[in-house]
Each structure stands twice: as C-alpha cells, then as structure tokens.
Amino acid sequence: MKLSRRGLLQGAAAMGSLWAVGCASTREAAVEATRPAAPREGKRILILGGTGFLGPQLVEAARARGHTVTLFNRGKTRPHLFPDVEKLQGDRDPKIGEGLKALEGRKWDAVIDTSGYVPRIARASAELLAPNVGHYVFISTISVYKELPRPGMDESAPLATVDDPKNENVREHYGALKALCEQAVEATFPGRTTHIRPGLIVGPDDPTQRFTYWPVRVAQGGEVLAPPGSDPAQFIDVRDLAEWTLLTLENREFGTFNATGPAKPLAMRELLEACKQASGSNATFTWADAAFLEKHKVRPWMDLPVWVTPGGDTAGMSSVSNAKATARGLKFRPVVDTARDTLTWFNGLPPERQAELRKRAGLPPEREREVLAAWHQEQGGAAKAG
Question: How far apart are CA 101 and CA 94, in angstroms?
Fold first, then answer.
C-alpha cells in the first residue's frame, strides 16, 4: 500500500507546530543521568514560538541547563505558560500588525525557530536578527526531501521543490517550503545556522495522536490489529529533541542534521511490545499484511500510525540515517519510557480532550473490529495473534 507524497506532506504539516495542547511532562532518571550538566555560563536564547509542542520542552530544558529564555509569539497559544519568562508579542509575518517590531534592537546569543513555515516570513526574522544574534537554529523536517525511496538516506538527499517559490500554501507544499526556509535562513546567517530535521515527534503533549494511538490502544487490551511486525518504525521523543537542540546550540554545531530515532533500527513489533510492557495489558497482536490492509482501505500513517509501507518513494521514510546527529550527541530514551509517559499524559486529560485527540488518527474501535473479522474470515478462522 503506497503512501502518497502529498499525503505525507499534509501529515507532516499537521504534526508540526500547527496544533497545540498542553501538560507538563516527566523525565526519566536513567535518561537524565546520561545528559550533560548545565553549562557554566548560560546563554541568552530567543525562541520563536515556545508554547506549542516542542517549544515548552525547549523552555524547560534551557532553563534547567542554566540559560535565559525569551519567547516571541502572538500570545494566542497557552499564554499562561511560563509566567516568569520574558515574552515579546508580535507576528512572524511583518505584514501583520506590528510584525517583528518587538525584536528590534535586542540581542541574544542564539535563536531557536520552531515556527518557520513560509520562506518570506523566515527570511524576515533572520534578516532582522542577523546583526544581533550569533547562532540561528531552525527546526525543519525530513519532509524537505524530494523522496525517500531507500533506507539509510542522509542529509545529502535531494530536496523537494515548488514551481512557484512565492507560493505560501503550507498544507500543499509543506516540505518544499520548509526547504526554502532553510535556504533563506542560511543565506542570512551563512555558516552560523543549524538545521534540525526531525521526523515524527512524539511523547507527552503530542497534538497529533500519531504515536499516542498505540500506547492507548494497547493499554485497552484484547486483540489489536497491527501492520507487519517486521516493518520499520522511526520517531523521536520531543524531550530528547529538545535536549539535543540545546546541545547543538551550546556546542555551536553548525550544519544540517536528521534528528529521528531511535539509535538502532526499530521494528513495529518491538514498538508495540514496548507499549504492552508500558501498560502491562493483556493485548495480543494480529499482524496483517500490507496487501490485506490495502484491500480493506486501512491507511498507513493515519489509520495505523507510525507505520509506512516500505515501498515506493517513501520506502525509506522510517529508516532515515541519523548517524550525523548521533555522532554529535543525540541520544534517545527507551521506547518503553516514551510509551509509558505518553499513556500517563493521555490518561490525565479530560475525557472531552481525549475524545478530540482520538479523532485525529488511528482506527475507531468498530472499524478495527470489522477489519479483524475480515482478516479471520479470509484466513479461514485461523487467528494469527502473537
């Protein structure tokens, strides 16, 4: 079953910072022990955004490491967060209201851009900040690649393009516009830019449900419809991404890095078993093959999140090389910890919020039962559960 390039990009746009939910997240002691101590001299860091999904983790990690943080945003997404952090209000688009005026004349050691989607807008902030900021960290995406047909593709892979560079339709041209944002920032901060390209970002606070579905569904127990267990899975815990983003800033690691994990190849079977371990449920897994799932219109990525069929121009989407980033200190907490923390966060949400998230990705219960019944009927009643 193929996942179209357009479908991938639309999904990537949705899983960025376009949606925001909220709740503080936990940290595992074992992971903390592997992380560097706070630097002796903190840096002054400007975060463009800061109250969505990745942003709050950056704020928490930066302050824990001894840095001073300033946020710049519109003040519309969870303005109650971080009352003791300096907040500057404005709009990334210089054509709207007072635009970037609040940033004029201010100096920071570094800026982390979590909310750049349109080249014109990314260029505007970069040009304004260039004289007074030493380092620009741009949060990009692996969707910048034209295609990912082979496992192990690295940062040198060809980038997506758009015929009209003035096109600002993010939903239709998410990856190509992100690539142009990278180029705009690099042109303004030559040799002083870090481009971080995460894949699927997961963990507590995830607004997309494109990982959360699995720990929540597995915790419910019973027979779980699953994709081929040997197919690869790749993602990064938002807390690991935040910590490493700060590390690149502290070490002045310039360049472009794929930031997705885990460190070693992970199969869907291992992911789901980790979800089972996290909740201690009695779940069993029915590993349906891709042909059956396609026949019954079960979509990869959306109906069965994280999973992408290993074929076509997205065959390598879940096997992107992260060697360059791991060589520079990118580390990953155990998958079971991410699953457990995500489940704890989800269970702490109000029922209406849980119901809203369930609509965003994953199979509804009745649809899953229908597909499982079809599987058993076609297999002659022999359940393939494990």
Answer: 8
Please check the confidence at residue 262 and state whether its pLDDT lies above 60.
Answer: yes
Mark 122-147 as b/e (b = at least 16 C-beta within 10 Å).
Answer: bbbbbbbbbeebbbbbbbbbbbbbeb
Any idea which residue has 């970069």 for tokens?
126
Spatial neighbors of 305 by CB under 8 A, at least 6 apart, are: 209, 210, 211, 213, 214, 361, 362
How many Å apart are CA 51 and CA 129, to the nearest integer? Answer: 21
Q: Alpha-carbon distance 226 to 247, whole Å?
A: 36
| Buried b / exposed e along 374-384 (16+ C-beta atoms within 10 A) | ebeeeeeeeee
Q: Which residues, listed in sequence order, are joined to residue 323 by a DSSP beta bridge? A: none
At 104, the amino acid letter reads E
Parallel/antiparallel/unpaired status of strands 261-267 and 232-237: antiparallel
How many whole angstroms separate alpha carbon 7 and alpha carbon 85?
A: 38
DSSP assignment, residue 101?
G
Classify strands 44-48 and 68-73 as parallel, antiparallel or unpaired: parallel
Going by DSSP bridges, is the β-strand pair 201-202/232-237 parallel, antiparallel, or unpaired?
Answer: parallel
Q: Is the bond into 262 cis (omega within 30 degrees of 0)?
A: yes
Quick one: pLDDT at residue 27? 34
Task: Give the C-alpha separation, 245 to 191, whole Å.
Answer: 17
pLDDT, tens digit, 9 for 90 and up, residues 320-367 = 999 999 999 999 999 999 999 999 999 999 999 999 999 999 999 999
Amino acid code (one letter) for 243: E
Report the relative pairing of strands 108-113 and 193-198 from DSSP bridges.
unpaired
Q: Cα(3)–Cα(5) distance, rounded to whole angstroms?
A: 7
Query: Please, which residues bridge with residue 231 across strands?
Result: none
Q: Which helix H or strand E contains 278, and what residues bound it?
A: helix 268-279
What's the longest Cα–Cα distance across the chain?
A: 72
Report residue 50 as tokens. Answer: 């800061």
pTM score, whole prediction: 0.90
